[in-house]
Amino acid sequence: MGSKPDNMSSEKLYDILSNIVGNRYVSSDEAVRYSYTRTPNWIRGEPPLIVVRPGSVDEISEIVKVANSHRIPVIPRGGGASVAGFPLSHRVPESILVDVTRLNKIIDIDEDHFVVTAEAGVLLGDLHKILKSKGYHVYSVDVPFYIDTLGGVISGFNGGGEPADVATSGELYHYLLGLKVVLPTGEIVQTGSGPGTNIHARKVIDRTPNTPDLTGLFVGDAGIFGIKAEATLAMEPWPDYFILGGFRTNSLLKAWSCSRKLTSRAPYPYTRLLLLKTNDINEWYVIYVIRAHEREEADFKLKTLTNTCKSEGLSEVNEKEAYSIALRYGTRDIGRTFAPRGMYIYFEAVFPAKYIPETTKLSREYAKKNLGDLELLSKVTDWVEFIAPKLRNTAIFGILLFFKKKSMTPKDVENLIKVWIGYMRESMKWGGFTEAVQGIGTFEAAAVWSDSYKQLVNRIKQALDPNNIMNPGLWGLVMEQ
Ligand SMILES: Cc1cc2nc3c(=O)[nH]c(=O)nc-3n(C[C@H](O)[C@H](O)[C@H](O)COP(=O)(O)OP(=O)(O)OC[C@H]3O[C@@H](n4cnc5c(N)ncnc54)[C@H](O)[C@@H]3O)c2cc1C
Q1: Ligand 1 centroid to 144 CA: how many Å?
Q2: What is the reported pLDDT for 100?
Q3: Per-residue pLDDT band at 89 (split at 50, 70, 90)
Q4: Which CATH number describes the domain made up of 334-440?
Q5: In degrees, to the nearest 5, what angle opens at C-alpha 141 toward C-alphas 139 and 145?
């Protein structure tokens, strides 16, 4: 951390923040503060000093100015669906937690240019619902759809988020056109091609014209460079045709070879592609979704895909079977599909496509050995392996593990977290990348940065955040004062 915070009492801070947002939206109540330390990860943090829920970008700016002038750490928070533990409220307990979920409006749907601007606290599920009713969609995330906020996923996940269609869409940043951000000193800036960067432009409809691409600076930054207040995204017309199906084989190599053949086609003969194996069924499934605007387009894709899978020796399964397997992994409705199965954790990383068969084997061996050594293997109730191709160059590999909650002692949880962090480290040695650029994930990711890159990020952080108040300490950045 940088300079020490001023010694302001929490009562005084409460009054100042209440003057900005109204006392209904500030709380230093213990139960409220504790509730913000929880995430879907098993890691728990210390509660912040105070929680504030601004209702506008100007209110965020006022709060940040107060924090900056008194050197009080600020932790932005969206849905709290961080898979790598929430920002270090356990390291910076004397912090102001800024919950942005009241900024949940859709500001503009521009059907002439296929562009939508929304506030950063909007839930992705809500954004999806409104756009779908008008015949559009944006590439956001498939999961956890009803928890994630727009600003949280752009800040906290690889490439600004991995959409459900990641196999053909790539990451969310491809569709991100501009951001409105409150910098750590309180100034409000706008990136993208709109009036914030170009005095003649009326709105953001493109990302890079006339400017260096500063939007990218704020993608996957874990929220260290400022609080996102608005985002503008490219919209796509909603495709009416939907086909779900699958193939299966007893060999990973066959499933993977089939997937690579499909991936090498242009256009892609699928919209989503996922390889799945569950602990109780000793077979690999290749599950696909085809979305299309015309029946002919869907039929053509289906024919290409079916011919390829059959020529690779895979057997076709019906839609019902494909759906039941996909549900073992699907988290769209976490409460219903995940909660009854116990507590879960993902061992997950992105690898260059060519390494997938080898890293699948290494990952499985790592998990079995390390969980076995700590006597955690016998507590696993469900073990699902998945491979999700991401465009043509990389693929996500993961093992999704469930544990019977009652069987896990506090020591088991501590050990499990160690094994999970160890997986992040090992997978990076095998050529992988961690996806969770949030919480603990930022430390592991930054541990492999070159010195020159670390210096560059540090210099940018110092320039934007001279008092090091915004999510201090993430990425292991220690600032000199
Ligand atoms: C079961 C499960 C499955 C998942 N699957 C996927 C998936 O398929 N694809 C995918 O992309 N993600 C997936 N995720 C990860 C999830 O999308 C990310 O963790 C995302 O960052 C959560 O968004 P949030 O709004 O809850 O952010 P939070 O958890 O609230 O915050 C995440 C980080 O962003 C920062 N932050 C939050 N809001 C802002 C803001 N407005 N401005 C600046 N910084 C901010 C926080 O300080 C924190 O560092 C999954 C998560 C779970 C639990």
Answers
A1: 9
A2: 98
A3: very low
A4: 3.30.300.330
A5: 125
Q: Is the pLDDT of residue 2 over 70?
A: no
Residue whose CA is at the smallest distance from ligand 1 atom 44: 223
- In angstroms, the CA 104 to CA 149 distance is 9
Q: Which run of H or E residues covers position 291?
A: strand 281-292
Residue 113 has pLDDT above 70, yes or no: yes
Instruction: Indicate which atom in ligand 1 lies nearest the CA of residue 142.
Output: 8
Tokens of 182: 């409150």
* Domain chopping of the chain, boundaries: 106-237, 241-327, 334-440
* Ligand 1 probe mutation, 155, 230, 474, most atoms within 8 A of CB: 155
What are the pLDDT digits (tens) for 153-187? 999 999 999 999 999 999 999 999 999 999 999 99
At the top level of CATH, the class of 106-237 is alpha beta
Higher pLDDT, 46 or 387: 387
Q: 114 and 134 in contact (C-beta within 8 Å)? A: no
Residues with CB under 6 A from ligand 1: 40, 75-83, 87, 100, 120, 141-144, 147-149, 151-153, 155-157, 161-162, 222-223, 227-228, 331, 334, 438, 471
Condensed to tens digits (0 to 9), the pLDDT of residues 178-191 reads 999 999 999 999 99
Residue 339: per-residue pLDDT:
74
Distance 113 CA to ligand 1 centre (A): 28
Is 106-237's fold the same as 334-440's? no
Query: What is the number of other CB atoms lying within 10 angstroms of the CB of residue 377?
Result: 15
Burial label for 374, CB within 10 Å (0-12, 13-18, 19+), is middle
CATH topology of domain 241-327: Alpha-Beta Plaits (3.30.70)
